[in-house]
TrEMBL record, chain A:
NCBIfam families in the cross-refs: 3a0106s03 (TIGR00971), PRK10752.1 (NF008022), PRK10852.1 (NF008106)
PROSITE patterns, alphabetized: PROK_SULFATE_BIND_2
GO molecular function, one term: sulfur compound binding
Entry annotated with the keyword Transport: yes
InterPro entries, alphabetized: Sulphate/thiosulphate_BS, Thiosulph/SO4-bd
Name listed for the protein in its UniProt record: Sulfate ABC transporter substrate-binding protein
GO CC entries: periplasmic space
GO terms classed as biological process: sulfate transmembrane transport
Annotated signal sequence range: 1-20
Automatic annotation (TrEMBL), chain B:
Organism whose genome encodes this protein: Paracoccus liaowanqingii
GO MF annotation terms: ABC-type sulfate transporter activity
Main location: membrane
Role description: Part of the ABC transporter complex CysAWTP (TC 3.A.1.6.1) involved in sulfate/thiosulfate import. Probably responsible for the translocation of the substrate across the membrane. Part of the ABC transporter complex (TC 3.A.1.6.1) involved in sulfate/thiosulfate import.
Protein name listed in UniProt: Sulfate transport system permease protein CysT
Transmembrane is among the record's keywords: yes
GO cellular component: plasma membrane
Length: 330, 282
């Protein structure tokens, strides 16, 4: 009785290494679960066709700052796909990857991008079209806590940039505007997905502010609710930066594989999968294919308006900074 | 007293008192003492002036005030309801009693985030309870009542499970004696039953209060998380961590730890008082 069992076990052990098994850990932001569930098999198929080696990609999703902290504390990520450049900078500061990670891939290492946009209830009963509607007293916008959510940090900066543009760069007027937007928020969740729940499931608020890509996904998922997507006239370019976590990838022997994966994100095949999920892409041919589905919008960047992320961190996001002033003293 | 006074000389249930004590102490040091020391050291690193600046900032003070107020509301509710629950479980027989008894431990076993999500779903404006409460002008979710509700849910077993055994030990003949002497039911409760369970009940309430202070998972879903209004201390510590501000998080955590330690010491004193009280009335 025991011999066959032993033989099977031996056979399993012996045949094990014959199948070369590659493995990657992609540590990513909160709302990208479905996106990478679609991207990973496509890349794995291509990798197997090219090299004959099978590939497993493990995913870890969460608020991007929390994910960065997990990596700092030892989560062996081979690569990161975040929605916030500052969170990769934190990794660079601790030496996990080179300071010039933005130069490793095209477009500042951002294969796709998005922008803060709106999702309103069926028929847009409050007539919400642009950022100034969010400051109206009868409108309750829903977005997460900018202190815990990269997503909401973009919302804050986009509203701020809009107000600056409307008021000829008057900082005080911009702060007043953002303060009145924040004063209308009925609940601050800790992450983008929690805010989606608050808006869609609990029926709180008149408008959900989140990445355009997420508004598309929610509208599709809650089809029965008839949510409508609204693109404001102006918004903030939100890079979705990617990087190989050099130190971990070296230890795991996955540098080549991780680089190949991130390079692949720029191919038309991957760009199409991204555009289908309402991300805006950098491949012009693919972008043209989806032009009808993505409303035109004036995009400004953090560099243009705020002088880069370092300045944003120091002036806006630091403890006691402008965000704290408008957020805490609502 | 006689059994309690003849401890580890005569019969040892576990082999070697020294070995058992050594193992438990080592475990305690590794699992509890070292992490707490690390937290305290982190706090000491900050320096008293900076520490005070962090914990006395307007936002932190508001967070502590909200946490303490909600915990007080939750404990007040549990003090009454928990006592009632323990009474029902001990003194009454009815079908499904054992099931109810088992259900009492659900808050211990359930992931608190799940509890928070379920409570939010029930009490939100379009939830089962919320549909009734909201039109009546009693919003629960995203207010301090929501925080208190989540705290009450996760800490109720502490009251029930400390009062229950004492009630079970209480000799019903004492109550019968009081009744035969002409006491009204209320007098029996106030003069005979309540004094006997008072220490245990207070100990249970104190532990429930301490547990409420530390609750996080359930609350972040049902609280509005608005700074200064519905932001609890544990969430503020979490936010500080998200900002890579380890000192800020440690300082807030230390204050919570301080509160909890004081309460737990108090609870232990009450429990030993309860034990002596029970010996005396036996």
């Amino acid at each position: 009785m025991k011999l066959p069992v032993l033989a099977t076990a031996l056979a399993l052990i012996l045949t094990g290494p014959a199948h070369a098994q590659d493995r990657l850990l992609n540590v990513s932001y909160d709302i990208a679960r479905e996106l990478f569930e679609a991207l990973n098999p496509a890349f794995a198929a291509q990798w197997e066709a090219e090299t004959g080696r099978s590939l497993t990609i493990d995913m870890s999703h969460g608020g991007s700052s929390r994910q960065a902290r997990a990596i700092l504390e030892g989560l062996p990520a081979d690569l990161v796909t975040f929605n916030q450049e500052t969170d990769i900078d934190v990794l660079a500061e601790s030496g996990l990857l080179p300071e010039d990670w933005r130069d490793a891939f095209p477009n500042g290492a951002s294969p796709y991008y998005s922008l803060p946009a709106f999702l309103v209830r069926e028929g847009n009963p409050k007539g919400i079209e642009d950022w100034d509607d969010l400051a109206r007293e009868d409108v309750a916008p829903v977005f997460p806590n900018p202190k815990t959510s990269g997503n909401a940090r973009y919302t804050y900066l986009a509203a701020y940039a809009y107000a600056l543009a409307q008021n000829d760069g008057d900082q005080a007027a911009a702060q007043d505007f953002v303060r009145s937007v924040f004063a209308n928020v009925p609940v601050f969740d800790t992450g983008g997905r929690a805010s989606t729940q608050t808006f869609a499931e609990r029926g709180i608020g008149d408008v959900l502010v989140t990445f355009e890509a997420e508004t598309g996904q929610i509208a599709a998922q809650y089809e029965a609710e008839g949510f409508e997507r609204v693109t404001p006239s102006m918004s903030l370019f939100a890079a979705f930066p990617v990087a190989v976590v050099a130190e971990n990838a070296e230890d795991n022997g996955t540098t080549e594989l991780a680089t190949a994966y991130l390079d692949w994100l720029y191919t038309p095949e991957a760009q199409r999968l991204l555009a289908e999920r309402d991300y805006r892409v950098t491949d012009e041919t693919v972008a043209a294919e989806f032009a009808d589905a993505q409303a035109p919008v004036e995009l400004v960047t953090v560099d243009e308006v705020f002088g880069g992320w370092d300045a944003v961190s120091a002036e806006h996001l630091a403890s006691g900074g402008i965000l704290d002033q408008v957020f805490v003293n609502r | 007293m006689s059994t309690a006074a003849a401890p580890f000389r005569a019969k040892r249930v576990l082999p070697g008192f020294t070995l058992s004590l050594g193992t438990t102490l080592l475990y305690l040091v590794l699992i509890v003492l070292i992490p707490i020391s690390a937290l305290i050291l982190k706090g000491a690193e900050i320096g008293p002036a900076a520490f005070w600046a962090i914990v006395s900032s307007e936002r932190a003070v508001a967070a502590f005030r909200i946490t303490l107020t909600a915990a007080a509301i939750a404990t007040a509710f549990n003090a009454v309801y928990g006592l009632l629950m323990a009474w029902v479980l001990v003194r009454h027989d009815f079908p499904g009693k054992r099931l109810l008894d088992a259900l009492m431990d659900v808050p211990f076993a359930l992931p608190t985030a799940v509890a928070g999500l379920s409570l939010t779903a029930l009490f939100s404006a379009n939830g089962w309870f919320g549909q009734v409460l909201h039109p009546a002008g009693i919003p629960v979710v995203y207010t301090i009542w929501g925080i208190a509700l989540a705290m009450a849910f996760t800490s109720i077993p502490f009251v029930v499970r400390t009062v229950q055994p004492v009630l079970e030990d209480l000799d019903p003949s004492l109550e019968q004696a009081a009744e035969t002497l002409g006491a009204t039911p209320w007098q029996v409760f106030a003069r005979v039953v309540f004094p006997a369970i008072l220490p245990a009940w207070l100990a249970g309430c104190t532990t429930a209060f301490a547990r409420s202070l530390g609750e996080f998972g359930a609350i972040v879903f049902i609280a509005g998380n608005l700074p200064g209004q519905t932001e609890i201390a544990a969430l503020l510590a979490y936010i500080r961590l998200e900002e890579y501000d380890y000192n800020g998080a440690a300082a807030i955590a230390l204050v919570l730890l301080g509160f909890a330690l004081v309460l737990l010491v108090l609870s232990n004193i009450l429990q030993s008082w309860a034990a002596r009280h029970r010996e005396a009335t036996r």
